[in-house]
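Build the 3D complex.
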Amino acid sequence: MQDQLAPLYLLPPPANTPWAGTPGQTIQSQVARTDADPLIVNLPLFWYDPRWSRLTTQQADDLAVAVSRYDVLVSALRSDLAGADTEPSFHAPIKNESDEESPGEVSPDSDAAFFPRIVPYRPERYGLNAADFDQATIIDVRLMMPRDTSGRFAYSPDQIARWESKTQVEDVEGSWVPAATFPPDVDSFENLPTKLQQLRYLAPSAAVFTSIGPYRLEEEIPLAVGSKPDGLIVRFDEVALEPLQLAALTRRARQLMNAANAKHTPLWIVPGEITADDAVKLVALGADAIGVDAWCNPLMDDSQIDQSSHYSSRIDFDELAEEALYDLIERFSGLYLSLQRVPRKERLGSFSTGWAKTLNIKALR
Amino acid sequence: MSPPKPTSKPNAAGADSTGVDALSPSAHEISMAGLSRDQVRAAIHEITPSDNDEELTQIKLTGAEGQHSALMRIDHPVRLQIEGALGDYAFAFNAQADSRLVGNVGNGVGEGMMSGAVRIRGNAADGAGAAMTGGTLAIYGSAGDRCGAGMRGGGIFVRGNAGNEIAVGALGGMIVIGGDAGERLGDAMSNVTIFIRGRAKSLAEGVTDAPLRKREELRLGLLLINASIRGDAQEFRRIIPASVLDQENSRRGEVNPSYR
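Done.
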């Protein structure tokens, strides 16, 4: 994968900067929440839209755990990862070493740790169960009509079959189910705050975000942040953007949020194909966390290849995730921490006059 | 100032130190005024349910003043009786409980409910019963737009009129409308049956009017009695996806070998 944002450079401190000692070595960030303590996010990376129905439930559960062991927030419903009578490992308390010695004795107490998890709250709520709210990290209220691989605004038969295997739904196999764009129990953007507040009550451990598409940022960002979510996700991977467009739209999204009195509301973006360097540059442009679907989705392809050749053995997703993610996350973390040494407005520069002018960053000569 | 402790007092004397009556399982009272949602929920869940399925333990809830997000995630086999209005998302994601409210409710009443019953003696706003997977939601007044949207199971009864796009995106379950319905009735619904007594302004593309079969008459008649909705099942029309009607028609005339 090549750097999309290669014309941008992460600038070191100027030559006359005094030796300031070791900078803070934490990559943790905080998300402020209404009526609750701030949420700690260990790593500002997330897997926004895994297509879990491509895998068996066991594989999906194993993969979700393997990826989230790297502190990447993973989006999944219980029904994505397990059948009717099974508790996904991804949703269970994280086992420590003593638990491994005596399996089955893990009890969910108040000190138990859980994998960082995003609950996709789609307008239709197919597959969503009340237990999905428990110990969630982020509730993601999706306000964008999803397209399936065919291009339809719809959910595919395999998705519906996965989500609804445990309810009374029958005979929907083989048909596409049209998707909605706005919660049917919310009559307008004006009443969206009540919905978000409801979700805060249902999921007291979580921050409540809304997510929108990239098409109407000028109109939709003010409306979305006007409902006072704890964060906003913009899904730029919906369109094949030129690198400069991606950079400019990221910066523009942040400006629109600032203008809408949401300066401190986190902006998370899903950028499509990016490298670790690109991810940090997007942070420098105003994003607070980056969707790394481009890094994680290939793990599903790998598993399918493995499945076809070694279908009788269980896939070692920990190993696959290490191969795919370790170096990228290490690089991201290193560059991200290096950013902290440089004042916010001096973090980026470009030798390209066009890029520098478009993004209003330092032109290097 | 610390928040007030939840109190659940029996209508008869004899509450224990937690405020929950251990001796008289049949009637309790909880005031929602001044309590958080969690405190109300905890107080309800503390009450020991009746062993007798036919006679649920009754809990009277006072202080309903249009609160949003009230009485959510109650998963307890008790009967809740509420007088007064509630706001949006009342009774969301409930199971087992039989809730009866006299008053109006806002948007999303009974969202995601899994089992049990919610009976509203008043009107409901938009999205009533959205994404419910089981149980019964009965609205004795009228319902707003998108009632039953995305539902996957259970039944919704609306004695009065219902708004536009009823059952939009629903995948399973049944909706009974005693009055009229608005536009695009049954939009994008998959495996749902709607019974309607009045008229719909328009049916959505892909759904059709179908005759009521004998077994559905019997089933609907029983459901109407259970939901305390007056009327004869024969007065209702059946709205189903056209594909389902095609399947029904193609099955007609098939010889079932087990009959021989």
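The first strand of chain A starts at residue 8 and ends at 10.
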